[in-house]
Amino acid sequence: MKRLILNLFEMNCVSHITHGLWRLPDNNRERHNDIEYWIELARLLEDGGFDAVFLADVIGTYDVFRGSADTSIRQGLQIPNNDPSLVVPAMAAVTRHLGFGITFSTTYEPPFAWARRLSTLDHLTKGRVGWNIVTSYLPNAARNFGLDGEVEHDTRFEIADEYLDVLYKLWEGSWDDDAIIADRENNVFADPARIRPIDHDGKYFKVEGPHLPSPSRQRTPVLFTATASGAGTKFAGQHAEVVFTGGPHTDFIKRTISNIREAAVEAGRRPEDVKFVTIAGVIVGRTDAEAKAKLAEFERLTSPEGYLAHAGLPFDPTAFPPEAKLKEVTSTDGGIGRWRAFDPEQTVGEFLAGFGDLSRHPLFAVGTPEVVADAIERWLDDVGIDGINLLQYHSYDTARDFIELVVPVLRDRGRLRGSYDPDESLRDRIFGAGDRLPDRHQGARYRGGAHLPVTRLSA
Ligand SMILES: Cc1cc2nc3c(=O)[nH]c(=O)nc-3n(C[C@H](O)[C@H](O)[C@H](O)COP(=O)(O)O)c2cc1C
């Protein structure tokens, strides 16, 4: 029976992806600047049996909708927004098992420093980090890093592919496992013959090496990515171990799963080498009425405008009569914004109804613990996912409710285990096959310095 991978979907900001709800009574979103916020959260999640906290990130503002960042700024929509990786050591210090998925983009900052930061985090967490590889989508992000506009979509994936190649060389190939000798008598800490530069000289990056940190427990952290496009699917098939999927309906999710598994096989891997985790909305109550009352309260506060700004809509549908057809009010056809394609025959009113409607999510469950657990079992068995990134409506009540009410039912049904295995790395928890990348993953080809230039550090 398939066991659920259970992650909390987080972001180091006020309004991540449930816009308007930061205003709920006792919601802690405004405390994201406090280290105590992250410490309390980590303890709660580990006591409750979560596998990981997944930290989204962007490196720019949402300033396309209505031609400015005003809506985002007013609503706390991913601004203010802090660095996701820096809260990880605080959470790791008060936990032993919880994993951490950290989002970082391959498009703007070169790979050497990021490789070093992730190795440091893998050391500090004793092998509990994952990296959500993104290529960034905000035009403002490009302008923040010295460019006039976004790098073209498929080129971003080409850059990401070389970026990963550099990282594998540093993480897997630069140091041998036995490079550290720690011989106090002869003052020899490490053996230069077992540490090598990588001498990478490619189209986008030139990196000499060696890697600065010694090999961490996982070496390469667990590789997550979130994508569905053609270029992204090929990239995920080659690199990703866990794909974070979304989409308008379950058929789309099923298709993404099968396309990426196919791409993984083409890259010499096995279909089961890639796991799929989806955003899931869960509103649970002791009774159906209690759950529905929570949903009603959320619906009262949800902000359709926030979702419009988040989607980066290049036109303002609220400026047109609801009965107008989309094709009459915008010349763009097909994919509007980043998140959804639209039907040009749809009316403005129908189109707008999808924004801020919390129950429209393809994986959404509201009701008693049994109803929610039934839904999760269907997602696992019928849609074919392996886990969820639980959407937060309220911090920390969403996680608390799930832990109190849903976790016991899923444990009874064998869908979640009763306790953590001691001293497990994140990769071992997810795949049950050790701490390191499997041999058939392309990152493994550099092990022991194979496929690297023969330059050595020692004379
Ligand atoms: C569920 C989900 C979560 C995502 N989270 C982030 C994120 O935190 N930061 C980011 O820059 N992009 C994020 N993205 C965007 C993706 O990285 C990617 O840019 C987007 O899916 C378009 O890629 P594609 O054209 O390959 O599908 C996310 C995408 C999905 C589907």
Specify the CATH class: Alpha Beta
By helix and strand content, what is the structural category? alpha/beta
Give the SSE order as H and E letters. Answer: EHEHHEHEHHEEEEEHEHEHHHEEHEHEHH
Shape: globular
Strand content: 5-15%
- Count of spatially separate domains: 1
- Under CATH, the topology can be stated as TIM Barrel
CATH architecture: Alpha-Beta Barrel
Look at the structure and give the mean pLDDT.
95
Number of strands: 15
Bound molecules: flavin mononucleotide
Give the helix tally. 15
The main pleated sheet reads as: 8 strands, parallel, barrel
Rg: 23 Å
Strand line-up in the sheet with most strands: 1-2-3-4-9-10-11-15
Percent helix range: 25-40%
Low-pLDDT ranges: none
What does this 3D model show about the protein?
This protein is α/β, with parallel strands linked by helices and 459 residues long. The protein has a single domain, classed as Luciferase-like domain (TIM Barrel, Alpha-Beta Barrel), CATH 3.20.20.30. The chain has an eight-stranded parallel beta barrel, surrounded by five helices. Helix 13 packs across helix 14. The longest helix is centred in the middle third of the chain and has 21 residues. The model has no long low-confidence stretch (mean pLDDT 95).
